[in-house]
Specification:
56% of the residues lie in helices and 6% in strands. By secondary structure, the protein is α/β, with parallel strands linked by helices. Helix 30 (787-799) links the parallel strand 10 (778-782) and strand 11. The longest helix has 37 residues, at 408-444. The chain is elongated, with a radius of gyration of 35 Å. It is found in: Cell membrane. GO terms for molecular function: calcium ion binding; calcium:proton antiporter activity. The chain crosses the membrane at residues 65-89, 101-123, 143-164, 202-221, 227-249, 411-430, 487-508, 539-561, 712-734, 740-760.
């Protein structure tokens, strides 16, 4: 007789590990021991995740209950979140199983209608409760965001990810109900019944308390918010009780829940019988289904050996199944088994259908009992015990009451024990989970709301989610209806019970209601999906895309409302009360009404004519001789006219429309002497935290129009929503373009490839050479009005260079010069205005520079030229020379400037240098052509077959041209003389947070910067300039190299960039473009 082996409960093992976590000490070796040889490292500590705090480490982090472990490291807190999350998952599983057992035994009634619905939402409710009960009021205000994140995340996950997945796995042909294997967005989908639609309508009604609690924000009421919280709390409790009593007196909701649970029993009975009667085990030793044995079982059941199992053969199997304590009609069992297995609807089961069905049921059994390995027989027996009282899955499709069961005392005892165990686990480990999430937020800097929104619903809802997907995969109307009813019912409990708990915490702890964005997300998702489920019973496959899209959009909406306008909010764990108070103060930002980048020229001109005529805008500054006549492009002129009209009409939301050609921005559009006045963007002090944003007039306008103050305040909310939706729609329009996905997919891959080249280490490394400050070398930097250019200028001034700043805006140049001189009193710096998208401006700059050198009694030469200027334009614009603006700014202008300054570089008594700034995006270029019209950008769009401006392609192309030009110029200079004094380098700064992406929708650029920052790939200007400084100060032997990654390192660029034939062709065609815009003498000097 074999000894009985019992499995140690895994949750208890986790608890034991947590309790035993402590500090570990080794023997101490003094770092000052005279007999030790240093390896160059001292006072080096192990990674933080190896140094979890001991039981006495309360000064570092606060231990829950005084003995559970805590840590301040990222990995340590992630581990604790995973462990406590698993324990909450076990609690939710116990409560779910116990509820089903009790409901199956008692049937619909008072217990099932009042008690059991509450138990299903209990884990979420407990987590929400403990999130607002801890510590001081300030701590509770911070941690309660975790509860709100769980409430919003649970609702959104159920109605988006789970709802959409059920449509995908349950799809059938909407015409004949047959199984659908292909992707037919309109012809396939799922069908539900009318009672499922009723459940969806109940869910929509349950959002009323959310609307009530938002009334003070909607109407900008400065008082009474606490009273509204109390009213909403009472209403949510009334809704909860009404929903429970509705189930008592209209028990179809309970009956559907019961039918959902009873569907599981047929699976367990068949599996246990097959396991007992089979020649081996249905599961292999690794826990996976034994396919060969299942195929043998198929042949054994197929008594006539015709390779299919008929209904009569299946009936013989059903007769052999003994459901303990239950009466089973074999014919009814056959119908239900055939319904579950026969996906082809041909009334017989082939081998593939039989094997697939058995494997699905085995997976369900393993998920239910959590046993593996040598306990395989317990899988079958344990799963059957769980579902024994649910055998009437084999009844008709109507919602029937439960049949009698054998030994009801044991079932009640087991159900009560599971409910008690689940409640205890949830109550004990909810607080540690909240603390772990809070500490993880503090360690990573990720707001706790987003962590709880994404992670915590996985712990409390994943068990039911798996069951829902398995039932939906049966591809039957009945099982699909039950699944969707469960989803709607769970959300209804979130909107009533969980909200009531959250409101109670806010009211009792006197917390500030600061959750408008989260509530808006719940409202939008609940209403959209609720109305979709209320008025239709057929859901084509395309509806899953709506559900899936709502999940990221929900996070996006919260991000927009909370952070898009630069508003600080609570939610970063560890912020001090003073910081939280400062975050609530009024925050003012400038705003302007400007022309949209993608607006048509014709539409802009018509809008200018109206604004400057009937609109009454003051357009004198954009006339000939006015301060804003230059730059002479329709975008700039339209922006000035729109902005003046906007200000004169008190920032009315309708005053910045112009038939969709205008938009509000917080980026100053002023250029040079043309200064556009701004309005004032403010967060009203009565509306703390994130949320409903107010727009008011500038002080001057407010004085003139004080009689309109009340009317303006009434439209603040409308303006906020219009503005937010405008930003979202602009982002969505951008996301649907091919160029966006090229940026989102190929550019990160190109960046990773460059870093891989860096890790392989095949390039050279060069040390920076010191600068002879006594000679004061002269350096010219283009694009020096901000970002990288300004940072490089500041550094080279420190190195002893006389720095010449070149840029488009006099105002911005003066600002950079002033900032550098404030930091370094003895700095030598000068600014010149130059527009690289104009050959005329480039040649004027050269003349002005030469004249300045002569007047300053300086050598008529330069020692360093850094071509840094570059733009990323998302709309097509022609320059005065007739070229694409991005191509001329990024390459053609740099080529022309370099060629025009070569004589000055050649005149230098010191070795001179050219540094061209390129980008890793050059790696995305594949098909290279250098015809004149392609370089000019005139034929680039038609040649590539794009309907929209291919800005990503053009940016990559311009940066490839810049790199190839660097190599070709280096080659030509070396051919002219091996000891030639001019060296040429290319430098790639990587990803730097600058204004180059200002034309990309701000919503997307901020998200991109956030993601890149979390991946540690985003650099500031000071870090990004390192490769540029490396190239500028490297020895001349580094000529022709591609600098990347800082520390003097170089890497290999795209293989096509080393093609000398391509380089020669680029040089020839670039010179031909230059010839059209300079004098004969200038061209001869340049070409020589």
């Amino acid at each position: 007789m074999k000894a009985s082996v019992k499995k140690f409960p895994f949750p208890l093992l986790l608890v034991a590990v947590l309790l035993l976590v402590g500090s570990v000490h080794g023997r101490l070796i003094s770092e000052f021991a005279p007999d030790l040889i240093s390896d160059g490292l001292k006072r080096v500590h192990p990674p933080s995740f190896l140094r979890l705090g001991s039981l006495s480490a309360s000064q570092i982090c606060e231990q829950t209950y005084g003995f559970l472990p805590c840590t301040t490291s990222v990995v340590g807190n992630l581990f604790l979140v995973a462990v406590y999350g698993y324990l909450m998952f076990q609690a939710a599983t116990c409560l779910s199983t116990g509820s089903e057992l009790l409901l199956a035994l008692l049937g619909p009634g008072i217990i099932g209608g009042l008690f059991l619905p509450v138990l299903g939402a209990l884990p979420d409710a407990i987590l929400i409760l403990v999130s607002g009960l801890s510590g001081s009021k300030e701590t509770a205000q911070d941690q309660v965001l975790i509860g709100m994140g769980l409430l919003a995340g649970s609702t959104v996950m159920l109605l988006t990810v789970l709802w959409g997945s059920c449509v995908v796995v349950g799809k059938v042909s909407l015409t004949d109900g047959s199984a659908s294997t292909g992707i037919d967005l309109t012809g396939s989908g799922v069908t539900t019944d009318q009672q499922t639609s009723h459940a969806a309508k109940i869910m929509v009604i349950s959002v009323v308390p959310f609307l009530i609690v938002q009334l003070p924000r909607i109407f900008h009421l400065s008082s009474g918010s606490r009273l509204v919280v109390l009213i909403s709390l009472i209403v949510s409790i009334v809704f909860l009780l009404s929903y429970c009593f509705f189930q008592v007196y209209q028990p179809w909701v309970q009956s559907r829940r019961l039918a959902y649970a009873k569907r599981k029993h047929i699976i367990s009975g068949l599996l246990r019988h097959l396991h007992k009667e089979s020649l081996g085990k249905l599961l292999r030793s690794d826990g996976e289904p034994n396919i060969q044995l299942i195929e043998k079982l198929f042949k054994r059941i197929d008594t006539n050996s015709n390779n299919v199992i008929s209904a009569s053969e299946l009936r013989s199997l059903a007769i052999g199944i003994q459901f303990v304590g239950q009466d089973l009609d074999p014919d009814d069992a056959v119908n239900k088994m055939m319904e579950a297995f026969d996906t082809s609807n041909d009334k017989v089961l082939d081998q593939n259908e039989f094997v697939t069905g058995i494997c699905d049921w085995i997976s369900k059994a393993k998920s239910a009992v959590s046993y593996k390995g040598e306990f395989l027989r317990s899988v079958m027996s344990g799963y059957h015990e769980i579902t024994k009282v649910e055998y009437d899955t084999l009844l008709d499709d109507s919602d029937e009451v439960v049949e009698s069961v054998d030994n009801p005392t044991w079932v009640v005892t087991k159900a009560v024990f599971l409910l008690f165990l689940g409640t205890v686990i949830a109550a004990v480990f909810a607080d540690p989970l909240v603390d772990a999430v809070h500490n993880f937020s503090g360690a990573t800097g990720i707001p706790s709301f987003f962590i709880s929104f994404i992670a915590m619903p996985l712990a409390t809802n994943s068990s039911e989610a798996v069951s829902a997907l398995i039932f939906a995969s049966r591809k039957k109307k009945r099982s699909t209806s039950l699944t969707f009813s469960e989803i709607y019912g769970a959300v209804t409990m979130n909107n009533t019970l969980c909200l009531a708990v959250f409101l109670a915490v806010v009211y009792v702890r006197h917390l500030t209601w600061d959750f408008s964005s989260e509530v808006l997300v719940i409202l939008i998702v609940s209403v959209i999906m609720g109305l979709l489920g209320s008025f239709r019973t057929k859901f084509p496959l395309w509806t899953c895309s709506v559900a899936y899209l709502l999940y990221p959009l929900s996070l996006l909406l919260v991000y927009v409302l909370d952070y898009f306008f630069g508003l600080e909010r609570r939610g970063f764990a560890g912020s001090s009360p003073a910081a939280a108070e400062k975050a609530q103060q009024d925050q003012h930002q400038k705003m302007w009404c400007v022309a949209k980048n993608n607006a048509e020229d014709g539409a802009l001109q018509a809008a200018i004519d109206w604004a400057c005529g009937p609109g009454g805008a003051d357009c004198a500054p954009i006339q000939q001789g006015g301060d804003c006549f230059d730059p002479q492009d329709i975008q700039s002129h339209a922006s000035y006219a729109f902005n003046d009209y906007f200000l004169k009409h008190g920032l009315d939301p309708q005053a910045c429309v112009f038939n969709g050609a205008a938009e509000v921005t917080m980026l100053n559009p002023s250029q040079g002497k043309c200064v556009l006045p701004s309005g004032s963007f403010v967060q009203n002090s009565n509306i703390t935290g994130s949320r409903i944003l107010g727009w008011i007039e500038s002080p001057e306008t407010l004085k003139k129009q004080s009689d309109r103050e009340v009317g303006i305040l009434n439209i603040q909310l409308i303006f906020s929503i219009r503005g937010i939706m405008g930003f979202i729609l602009e982002a969505l329009q951008f996301v649907t373009s091919f160029e966006f996905w090229r940026m989102a997919v190929l550019w990160p891959l190109a960046l990773l490839f460059s870093y891989l080249e860096l890790l392989i280490g095949k390039g050279y490394t060069f040390r920076r050479r010191p600068v002879d400050t006594s000679l004061r070398p002269l350096c010219i930097i283009t694009g020096a009005t901000s970002g990288l250019g300004a940072a490089v200028a500041n550094h080279l001034v420190k190195e002893g260079f006389y720095v010449i700043l070149a840029g488009r805006s006099d105002h911005s140049l003066d600002k950079v010069v002033e900032e550098i001189k404030l930091k370094q009193q003895d700095s030598h710096i000068k600014a010149f205005q130059v527009n690289l998208s104009s050959f005329k401006s480039i040649m004027q700059f050269r003349s002005s520079l030469e004249q300045w050198l002569v007047n300053s009694n300086m050598e008529c030469s330069i020692q360093l030229l850094i071509n840094n200027a570059g733009i990323l334009a998302t709309s097509h614009r022609f320059t005065p020379d007739g070229y694409d603006q991005m191509m001329e700014t990024n390459y053609i202008g740099a080529f022309a400037l370099t060629c025009s300054l070569l004589p000055l570089l050649r005149n230098s008594s010191l070795p001179s240098r050219i540094v061209n700034i390129t980008s890793f995006t050059h790696r995305c270029v594949s098909d290279i052509q250098f015809e004149r019209d392609l370089l000019a950008g005139r034929k680039l769009v038609p040649s590539l077959g794009f309907k929209r401006y291919p800005f990503a392609h053009i940016y990559e192309y311009s940066k490839f041209c810049m790199l190839l030009f660097s190599y070709e110029l280096h080659r030509r200079l070396q051919l002219k003389s091996s000891s030639y004094s001019i060296s040429v380098m290319a430098a790639d700064p990587g990803v730097v947070k600058t204004q180059i992406m200002r034309e990309v929708p701000s919503l997307l650029s901020r998200l991109a910067f956030t993601v890149l920052g979390l991946l540690r790939l985003l650099q500031n200007a000071e870090s990004g300039m390192e490769s540029i400084i490396d190239a500028a100060l490297a020895p001349k032997e580094a000529s022709g190299m591609y600098f990347f990654g800082g520390k003097g390192r170089t890497i290999k660029s795209h293989r096509l960039s080393y093609d000398t034939k391509l380089g020669d062709k680029l040089w020839t065609n670039s010179l031909s473009l230059l010839k059209d815009h300079v004098t004969v003498n200038e061209f001869e000097e340049i070409s020589s």
